[in-house]
């Protein structure tokens, strides 16, 4: 999976009003100066995320996926941008990217898909990540977090 385009909007609602159909949410959770990754049972390390369910807002989906997959106690959730992602030659979709400030990790609920949750200082090698765009996703979220802090 790769990022085809980064679409700059102020909020997921603004993106939806502009006609963007957001199917997926991805959140980069930060615990102080470290960050959290999930090890997917069938892939590798990745940031928590997943599909937006029926009658669920984009923000609600991001909160739900983050808690389900990591058990995180979240103090804030901030929208970054909309990513137009490509998976293979004929599959593309839009994902809302967020970053979250996490105060604690508790037991996660998604024991089927998520095998392990761990706190990291730096990204694992690319071959140990689920998708080639994980480093770019981290960079975008980290830059937005630094900008918000200044």
List the helices and strands and how they pair.
Blueprint: E1 2-7, H1 12-17, E2 22-31, E3 34-40, E4 45-46, E5 49-51, H2 58-70, E6 72-86, E7 92-105, E8 114-120, H3 134-149
Parallel strand pairs: 2-7
Antiparallel strand pairs: 1-6, 2-3, 2-5, 3-4, 3-8, 6-7
Which regions have little confidence, pLDDT < 50, spanning 5+ residues?
Answer: none
Beta-strand proportion? 35-45%
The helix/strand order is EHEEEEHEEEH
Instruction: Please give the largest β-sheet.
Output: 8 strands, mixed
Given helix and strand content, the structural type is: alpha+beta
Distance between the termini: 32 Å
Mean pLDDT, nearest integer? 94
From the structure above, extract its key features.
eight-stranded mixed sheet; single chain; 150 residues; alpha+beta
